[in-house]
Design brief:
The complex is a heterodimer of chains A (291) and B (129). With 291 residues, chain A is of the alpha/beta class. Chain A folds into two domains: 157 residues, Globin-like (Orthogonal Bundle), CATH 1.10.490; 111 residues, Transcription Regulator spoIIAA, CATH 3.30.750.24. Chain A has eleven helices and five strands, in the order H-H-H-H-H-H-H-E-E-H-E-H-E-H-E-H. Chain A has a five-stranded mixed β-sheet with strand order 1-2-3-4-5, sandwiched between helices. In chain A, helix 1 crosses helix 7. The longest helix of chain A is centred in the middle third of the chain and has 44 residues. Chain B has a single domain, classed as STAS domain (Transcription Regulator spoIIAA, 2-Layer Sandwich). Helices cover 51% and strands 17% of the residues of chain B. A five-stranded mixed β-sheet of chain B has the order 1-2-3-4-5, sandwiched between helices. The chains are: A alpha/beta (291), B alpha/beta (129).
């Protein structure tokens, strides 16, 4: 495609965009009024503002004559689309609904291009192809941004969960408890282990209870991570007790052939606590009040 | 040459590692300690590594070796005050130091040594009667 041809095609699109902006905007918004509109999530005025801003930036991009979206002329349009995707991802739009925002501008544009080009079929085909390609790449960019935002949200929530789920609590003077909730993977084990060991030093605790009531399944990897934590605590001079072993988990551990012989295990946290008290030399007595 | 001091406290020997361990220093400590144990007929060795911040597999193995050698010479070894980072490193290196007894601090370590020594003596008394 020679430069002259491309320019004449861009001129056609540019003329349409600058001459009929209001008409395109109305048609476009009507086009979006179907199922993908989601008027429950976004006000009409807001949508209209977004659309008219996008049209203005589109015209600016087309005016530059460049069809490369990475170029500086398209920078404002890209930024606006990124912004639209980001807010829509947070508002709860689906990817289809977000992409349709860009794709639905095709119909009004194509209608106007046909009216303007008249009977010249070759010129029309070339114009349509160029416009279609441009809108497609803008739509793909929007979807990509949408996914990126969603991934960011997921990553942030994961981090928050990680921080929430590793509390180390002090049960008694010299006794710590670590209730583990959720699956133990390598990253979490690292955090759990560090938190536990640091607290052992800080509180000078002789016994640490790791409660795995909240761990859904124990496979060889999880068991290995538990053993690592127990060994590290032992190296520092603290005893570890694993509590909250459910019957199914006990069965799995034996079936998998995991050796937990060197580790003290208890069925419930209260059993483990009683043992911990005994090890630290504390005895509890029931004091009966006689009325 | 650099040396790690070995202090005598009654029946026990106290070793405080306060510098970065390098391999030669570790070997020297091993030799010094074994000879001191036999000289003084010590019944327990307490190694304080609370200032030790960097370990490698060699130092880890050396700790295990010292414990094993002391046991042969009839002395108990207790390693005290290991830092969390050091413990994690040793575990990741696959060294769980199975023969080494550990305690949180010097106090707890002394307690442990005295306890095991008393248990030892009590057993002997039982045998005698």
């Amino acid at each position: 495609m020679s430069k002259g041809v491309q320019n004449s095609q861009s001129t056609g699109l540019h003329d349409v965009l600058s001459g009929h902006e209001a008409a395109i905007l109305d048609d476009w918004i009507r086009e979006m009024s179907g199922e993908t509109r989601r008027s429950d999530l976004m006000k009409d005025s807001e949508l209209r503002a977004q659309c008219s801003r996008f049209l203005a930036l589109l015209r600016q991009g087309v005016a530059s004559g460049s069809s490369d979206l990475e170029s500086a002329a398209w920078q404002p349009a890209r930024e606006q689309l990124a912004d639209v995707s980001r807010t829509r991802a947070q508002q709860g739009f689906t990817p289809t609904e977000t992409a349709t925002f860009v794709f639905s501008v095709k119909k009004p544009l194509f209608t106007l291009l046909r009216e303007q080009t008249g009977n010249d079929a070759d010129a029309l085909a070339a114009q349509l192809w160029m416009t279609s390609e441009l809108i497609d790449s803008l739509g793909l960019y929007t979807t990509e941004m949408f996914l990126k935002t969603r991934e960011e949200i997921i990553r942030r929530q994961q981090e928050e969960m990680l921080e929430l789920s590793t509390p180390v609590v002090k049960l008694w003077d010299g006794i710590l408890a670590l209730p583990v909730i959720g699956t133990l993977d390598s990253a979490r084990t690292q955090i759990v282990m560090e938190a536990l060991l640091e607290n052992i030093v800080k509180t000078n605790s002789r016994v640490a209870i790791i409660d795995i009531t909240g761990v859904p399944t124990v496979d060889t990897v999880v068991a290995q991570h538990l053993l690592k934590t127990v060994t590290a605590a032992r190296l520092m001079g603290a005893d570890c007790i694993i509590s909250g072993v459910r019957p199914q988990i006990a069965q799995t551990i034996v079936h998998l052939g995991i050796n937990l012989l060197d580790v003290t295990t208890k069925a419930t946290l209260s059993d483990a606590f009683a043992l911990a008290l005994q090890r630290t030399g504390v005895t509890l007595e029931h004091s009966l009040k006689v009325a | 040459m650099e040396k790690i001091p070995i202090l005598r406290m009654g029946e026990f020997l106290l070793v405080t590692i306060q510098v970065d361990m390098h391999d030669r220093l570790a070997m020297t400590l091993q030799e010094d300690l074994t000879s001191r144990i036999s000289e003084t007929a010590a019944r327990g060795v307490l190694i304080d590594i609370s200032s030790l911040e960097i370990v490698d597999s060699f130092i880890g193995r050396m700790l295990g070796n010292i414990a094993a050698m002391s046991r042969v010479l009839d002395a108990q070894t207790v390693v005290v005050g290991m830092q969390p980072a050091v413990a994690i490193t040793l575990v990741e290196l696959g060294m769980s130091l199975p023969g080494v007894r550990t305690a949180l601090n010097v106090d707890a370590g002394m307690e442990l040594l005295k306890q095991s020594l008393n248990g030892h003596k009590a057993k002997k008394n039982v045998r005698r009667t």
